[in-house]
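Hi R.,

Here are the chain sequences for the assembly we discussed:
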Amino acid sequence: MDVIVLLKQVPDTETKIKIDADGKSIDTSDIKWIVNPYDEYAVEAALRLQESDGAMVTILSMGPERAVEAIRTALAMGADKGVLVDDPATEGSDALGKAKVLAAALRSMDFDLVFCGHRAVDDDENQVGIMVAELTGIPHLGMAVSIEVADGKARIERPLEGAKVTLEATMPALVTFGGAHAVWNPRYASLPGIMKAKKKPLEQKTLADLGVSPDEVGAQAAKMQVTSMGLPKERQAGRVLEGDTDEKAKELTRLLHEEAKVI
Amino acid sequence: MDYFLTEEQQMIKEITAKIAKEKVRPVRAELDETEEFPWDIMKVLAQSDLFGVYLPEEYGGLGGGVLENCLAVEELGRECIGVATTYAASGLGAYPILLHGSEEQKQKYLPAIASGEKLAAFAVTEANAGSDAGGIQTTAQRDGDHYVLNGTKQWITNGGEAEVYTIIAITDRTKGARGASAFIVEKGDAGFSFGKKEQKMGIRASATRELLFNDCRIPADRLISREGTGFIVTMKTFDVSRPGIGALAVGLSQGALDIATEYSRKRVQFGKPIISFQAIQHILADMATETEAARALVYATARYIDSDAKDISKYSAMAKLFPTDVAMRVTTNAVQVLGGYGYMREYPVEKMMRDAKILQIYEGTNQIQRNIIGQELNKEYGRIKETFF
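And here is the predicted structure of the full complex:
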């Protein structure tokens, strides 16, 4: 069985984000990069299939040279090989542009399952995985918190509000992963794993290798444009109301009515 | 500061830091409160193969040395030295076997310690033998192919939790210091049991128990090296393990500095963050300077030891003495900077201050370290004919 995990390198969730001078993107000069946490769950799920079914796990990513680091992290966790699509022409791609590149890369690879996080924590668009499934012509199972594979089918569980649904699709299929760190508890890379990761195959490809025209991707092909980006306002300090319960309730009502104007 | 670590050393630091931050920081207050032994965390460290960083590859280790061990210990210590002590004490128990054990003993015990499958512990201290190891009363009597152990070891870190114990016992009382020998005892050996778990001021996640030997019969091949070498084994072990205590202190100091600095930037008094006041800046500046000086000394000493240098006792003692005194000052100052909040258990620095105290006591009190340094100075200058004035 071949499992391909689509993996994105994103800014560390604890990095202090600064808006770039253009007002439309973030300043990436002083950022620590990590593997998108939801993609990390996808890697963990793939590695469990590697253990139980001997699956071959390949990491596929697109991005600049620094994304190699993210692929190596997944290889250190136990993935078998990596592919990075690194082409300056992809810069500024919207979700569809990215999905086209990844789908083109998948065409030259063998797979039974494609895994990825249901969203990346940088843009939070929830789109790339679904678009890749559509462009590849395979079913999409969304926001999995568990996965089982049997008889050529993939079965996932997805939580609903106060309930749970079980979904099934015939392979090949694409699964996007949800849940939380506590659900997947992704493994840490072991030290020997890190050493070995340096020697695992990591292929770099360009758009020309994939047969994708630069006109189809990148900023000029994007159907969606970011017009502005801003940080949330700094929160004001809270106010503690004094007095007995009656007085506090009255004062609160007055403030909600007169100051906050919500009632 | 860039200490020009190798790629491997950098990785050890990063992976340990990640585990410490994600698995230790969220539970350290709870472990302190409940005094629960951190088995879950030990398992995660084992899965990442961190227990073998300082052990040779032929015994399942990573082939690093004292510096690699110090890097892992420091990162764990930055979050909780109770947890870090548990990890470091396993190394302390393994060193006598690594340094003086037979090939058979190394083959038998080290791989399980390197994989983290078994924890180790080292036992010298007794009720009447602390700084004065000459007061040891536990005996080992040769009986055919066996030794019979009798006596009680006290305050043994990892006692009851470890599977492998290296202990010092007297084989010939008439020979004084040359009458002590080192042995390996396994959990489960007949006549070997544990006393109650001690209640401590700090490092409460770590387990500290008595080891009770009551006609404990062990095969004669558990003797490390030869009879009479027990004190040499002990001294050589401490020579390589003491920078590890320094590393715990550096981690703890860094952790306290992290919190005090972050707090000072956020805490507003007189309309300004308190870090804008020189009174606070100067405290933080001293904390940062001393922490960095301690780190530099620990790394330099660890590298010197790893170069197979022979005259390491003085530097090893310094690398324990200075960082641990620094950790006491730095954690005390962290409490001062946080003021009333610092004194409350809801904030982590009061625990850090309680934890710091043990660093000045265990693996040789800091007074003993000064003795070692003083004696070495006396020897060193006794060999020099030149006059300096």
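Chain A has two domains: 2-221, 233-263. The domain at 2-221 of chain A is CATH 3.40.50.620 (Rossmann fold).

Let me know if anything looks off.

Best,
T.
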